[in-house]
Structure formats: C-alpha cells, structure tokens
Amino acid sequence: MQFNPGWNSSSVNLLHVRAAGPGDSLHYVWSSIGAPAVLLVATQSPSSALRVNWTQLLSPNPAGAIWIDPPDSVVYSSAVVFTKLFEFREAKPSGQLFYPTYDLSEFSWDSLNHTLNLTALTAELSGVPATDPGGGFSNGSLAFRVTAYEAGGREERLPSLLHTADSSQLEFILAGVAPRGNSSRFVLEVATVEEEGAVRRLRSQRSIDDEYTPTIFEVLSLLAEPHNGSSTLGFLQWKATAYGSRSPRREDGIRCRAQGLRAANGSLPLSSIVQAYFGDTLGSSCTISALNVSFGGEEGEVYQERRYLSWSVLLGFGEPPRDSFSPLVISIAAVALGTPLALLLLGSCLLLLAQRRRYSEYEPIN
C-alpha cells in the first residue's frame, strides 16, 4: 500500500494497493480527488507499476495523468465511483419527499495518511460537505474504509463476507449525520466505468444458508462481463443488509436494496482519477452504468435512533467468491431430512411384519 506515490503533500488522497503474483499483478487505486473512486487494473506482468503525473492530475484537464507501465501488460481495467448521497422520506399522498442531494465530489476529505495501517492493510477516507447550510454534518461524517487482503478468508464482523487474496473490501459508513426529516432513508449512488467490450449485470442469488449472516438469505453481485458472456472480468458483491452499530449484531440489521442498474453515460460527476486513466475514451467507447443502493425500512427507525450506518461491499477480479454449505449446516440438513425418511422406512417394515404374523383360531374350510 502506497499513499500519494511520488507526491510529498498530503493535501490530496491517492492510495495505491498492489498485489503481485508469479505471472501477473493487480492494482487498486483509491482516491478522493473529485468524487471518491477506485480504479481496478489487472495486468499480465508481475512487475507492472503505477505511474502518476501529479501536475497534470491536479490540473483542470487530467486526461492521461495516470497509467500502468508497461501499458501493453494491461488485460482488464474498470472503475467504481461513489457519486451522490440522497436522503428522502415517505410522504403521503405524493410518495417520497427528497431533500437536497449531497454531491460527494464537493466534499472536503481528511488526509487518508492519518488512518493508513500497513500491518492490517486498512485505511479510511472520511469527509464532510464543503458547505453544509443545513448543519446535518456538524457532528457527523461520511467515510469509506478500505481493507486489502493477503489471503483468502472471512471477515469476523457482520456481514462476514467471504474474500480471496485478489479482492478488497470497502465499508461505507455514515456516522452522526443528523437526518433532515422524521424517518429519513438514505440512498448511495454507485457508478461503474467499463471499457469497450464489457458490460455490467446485476445478479441476485438466494440461499437457505444464513449461518454467517443470520436472517440474510440474499447475495447481490454487480458483475463485469464481456458481451459474449464467456467469463466474469470483475465484480462488486454484498449481502442484502447494512448495520446500525459499530459492533454489529443480528438485531442491528438495516434493510438494503438495489434499485436497478441503468445507463448513465455523460450524466454523472466523475472522479479525476477516472478521467486521468480513461481519458477521451470516457465520452466515446466506455460504458458508464449507475446503481442506487438504499438503506432502511419503511419507517427508517434504526438510523433515526442510533445515527450510524455501515454497508460492506467486496470488490475484485474474476468470479466473486461463493459461500458453500458448512459441515454444521450439512449435518443439520441431513438430520432434518433423514429422520422422517428413517421413520417412514421403519414404520413400513413394522407394518409388513405385523401383516405376516396375523393368524386365526379357526381351521381353514376345505
């Protein structure tokens, strides 16, 4: 993990996370220059490196300021941008009442270097609106907590996402922000950028196994696939829940919904690092999609009471990890399904034996 590689100032935030394999390397580039975003780049070279022209990156025209060296080693690149935070409440009979939008590209962000932990491979990007006339952020903040991994495993804290060494976890945190209405609910707008030849698709999977995330049976994945659908290039994956506590438990769950993927070319404020990497192809060959993720039930009580919201999402390359049934769940299922079957077989055997043992006191009439 490198903070602002090649730049001595901490007035801006750029975090480079590089994972090197025997024949390839993966790059995650996180930044709050403009709207907070992450670049994901996979290469076929174990020694590929990130290059940044800082003067150009911080200029009004950053196109071409970020690249991977050697350029011909890149096999896949994508970006995820967190653009806006909406707040609304249910209003009868009109439906929903939206408050002024929080544009994340206009936030003021703390230095990420203060939270960088090279041992735990974590960092946190925290910010507030540059202008906050309503005072909603006077005692609160919005943050993105990044975690990189050196090996596969599972997070201990709920929602206990399964991860691989190729993936990173992002935790979106809203803490202490005052709602602007009774029973307010929040919506985070997430945009993705794909180069020509790739598209995003939203997939929902349900399972009967809620061992690691109690009461949550749905996993959602935002997949990047080639047009022919032959393989998965990259993904975002999350459980259909958020939490209203720093130490989440089952009862702290907050309903989380994905409101459908839509085309968003040219309609979203983009991050400077996205413009710096993709350059002029953003407006021509790249595909930009957007997804709204909403938090809270119909009444929004959990956030209203606790003023805390945490949503975790896994980002990575290739196929997303899949949960398999644990030995405990398999044992329970075997007992639950096997016991009735065993009783049925036993009952049938006893019935047959009883029928064979029937006899009478009378002699048969010839």
Automatic annotation (TrEMBL):
InterPro entries: NCU-G1. It is a single-pass type I membrane protein. One of its GO terms (cellular component) is lysosomal membrane. The chain crosses the membrane at residues 328-353. Keywords: Glycoprotein, Lysosome, Membrane, Signal, Transmembrane, Transmembrane helix. It is found in: Lysosome membrane. The keyword Glycoprotein applies. It holds the Pfam family NCU-G1. Interacts (via lumenal domain) with lysosomal protein MFSD1; the interaction starts while both proteins are still in the endoplasmic reticulum and is required for stabilization of MFSD1 in lysosomes but has no direct effect on its targeting to lysosomes or transporter activity. Belongs to the GLMP family. Required to protect lysosomal transporter MFSD1 from lysosomal proteolysis and for MFSD1 lysosomal localization. This is Glycosylated lysosomal membrane protein. It comes from Cyanistes caeruleus. The gene is GLMP.
